[in-house]
Amino acid sequence: MATRIAPSADVSAEAQIGEGSSIWHLAQVREHAVIGESCVIGRGAYIGEGVTMGRNCKVQNYALVYEPATLADGVFIGPAVTLTNDHFPRAINPDGTIKSASDWEPVGVDIAEGASIGARAVCVAPVRIGAWATVAAGAVVTRDVPDHALVAGVPARRIGWGGRAGEPLVAEPGGDGAPRWRCPVTQTLYEESDTTIREVTH
Asked: Is pLDDT of 202 > 90?
């Protein structure tokens, strides 16, 4: 499958774009960014210098993915999402001089396989979003999100669990051990383990 780059997109010659990926109008992909195979970068999205993305990711319109963010395979970034990269942002140094690249050290957002970030959510670096986790639209994430967690609010807190299909898991009745949850779409059974859940394979 051919790679498609809209004529109005600004893609650095030093970026790596995977086969079958699409970069739409007015998107910007900076130097040394690595975009995996079959990714979609929506209109007006920004992919910062050195950002890495796995295969089959979707970054929707006007999302801002600042370096050094890393996105694993199958990550969804909703419209107008922001992944930040500065603990204590300032335009100037204490002496009044404008900050340069050498005056601060960027920190990143790490998003694991299959996770989804809802529209207009903000992930405040440094944080890790676990595999198959879901961040609700408009949430502000200020601490790590466990695998499969569904988080919402400002600041974001866990309000449930989600499976690979993306829908909230339903509590499984009965049982004397750890709480169990079932995906209403795939019927996969999960069991709570420490601060996350895991698939029950027996």
From this structure: no
